Amino acid sequence: MLPYPTSIFGYFIVGILGAITFLFLLLLFDKDVAILKNDHVKIHYMGTLYILLGGVLAVVVNLAGNPDFTANQLILAFGTGLGWPGIAAGIGAGRRVGELNQEKKKARGLNLSLEERTDRMVEEARKEYKDRLERHIKNYEILVSRANKQIEEIHSFYTKKLSSIGGG
Amino acid sequence: MREIIVDQIMKQPVYSVDVEDTIADAIKKMNEKGTKKILVMEKGKPVGVLEKWKILESDMGKKVKDVELSNFKVVPLGTVLSALESDLLNYPAIYIFSPANPNKILGIITAFDLVRAY
Fold first, then answer.
1. ipTM score here?
2. By CB atoms within 10 Å of each CB, which of A60, A166, B84, B94 scores lowest?
3. Interface with chain B: mutation pick from A139, A156, A159, A165, highest number of B CBs within 10 Å
4. Are the beta carbons of A142 and B114 closer than 8 angstroms?
């Protein structure tokens, strides 16, 4: 048994051990240890902070209920250290779920805009082909009119020639 | 729809004969170049278009200036094709000149080119 205030040290050590156990278990399943990743603090500092805070939390929780460290308190102190990163991981997971939902909404939005864009492109293509068809019809009408005009010119030309030689 | 300008579809080079050339020479040139119409120049300026169908056997000995020439139209480079629809209907050919030198004919378009352009 460790009497108060020596018990603080005991709770702290056991809490740290719990936190280390948690992180070890985490490493078994998540090689990247996503909850330790931070843009501002390096991963080994984050790991150290996690472990130390596990110890601090174990001290705070246990000391209030039982200032003296006894064998009965061992499991509670260890559990506190083990469990607190779990809470943090849970918060992190919750945040990630929120991010995923946002990404899902964004993806839906993109999908919708893709449909809109496809509709617009189809409409533009339809209009372009309609314009082009009308343009072709008009051009062929001009060509036919030009051919008819030339036939008239040829007719007129040769009629004039024939009449000039007295054949018409 | 995109606008097409004459520069994009005009045919080059433009073949020409002089008013003093004989019809036989003009026909020979048209046969060599595979064209049915040829621009007629006088002192370096275009004055008309000689069309093959207007030439009779009896014209062979004549000079180009002695036969009936067709009217033509000239437009500068950069003219929009859609603006020439009625001209392509009325003239056998439209000639394209350089804005820098109106007597320098650079290309030719006909109603067939209008169809080909789109």
1. 0.80
2. A166
3. A139
4. yes
